[in-house]
């Protein structure tokens, strides 16, 4: 705060010092803790790298719990306008519910730029179950579609599977391109391997519903990210719709890339990073104070 009557440099310096002392130390305010989600999730692994790479994050800790717990802490912080730093990603319904969220800039590029979500299939799926392969290969949708299902499930308390089924019924124009050239079958079994993230629960259940309408018997198996890649690579699972690239799941993708078929993007415009409410007066990861 500047003193209007000050005319000397000494007075100005005193004023500036006083102003700085009034600024919030966001590190102390959040106990030098980033509120995260499940251990092993792609964003968890990437945030651990960010803590190592950013000198100012030395001494910070990543609190790992669950997506639901993270969102609960975020909601409580926003309701009291308290500082909080969370691991965030799009698509996610929290961006629809909380309009005042922002990503912190990432000068070192640890979190990458815009992400895509890819579909991967086990080798041999095209030959064994060509109609399932074709439908999964043709599946693509938008961030808005995915977030809409996630938000509806969150607000209504309904199961994601039920909301996804209703979305398929309400959007035949969007699902029709997925089934072009796909023949009906009689009970052919398909296993989709996914992660327990709300975003992947949305995509898996939407595709599962469309597959069921074509006569497939579909199982969705939620697992840790590493297990998801390994399952498709060794043929224990038929396909996944949940590979975030080029940054989030880079290590897992590189490890198994020779052992599965990359079907390309099913969603473009995804993003991950550190997220704060916009009432916090910081714009970059480098603005977070060192411990």
UniProtKB/TrEMBL annotation:
GO molecular function: amine transmembrane transporter activity; carnitine transmembrane transporter activity
Protein name: Glycine/betaine ABC transporter
Record's GO cellular component terms: ATP-binding cassette (ABC) transporter complex
Major subcellular location class: membrane
A GO biological-process term: glycine betaine transport
Entry's localization field: Cell membrane
Stored PANTHER family: GLYCINE BETAINE/PROLINE BETAINE TRANSPORT SYSTEM PERMEASE PROTEIN PROW, GLYCINE BETAINE_PROLINE BETAINE TRANSPORT SYSTEM PERMEASE PROTEIN PROW
Domain (ABC-type glycine betaine transport system substrate-binding) ranges: 25-169, 189-288
Keyword Ribonucleoprotein: no
UniProt lineage: Bacteria, Bacillati, Bacillota, Bacilli, Bacillales
Biased composition (Basic and acidic residues): 10-23
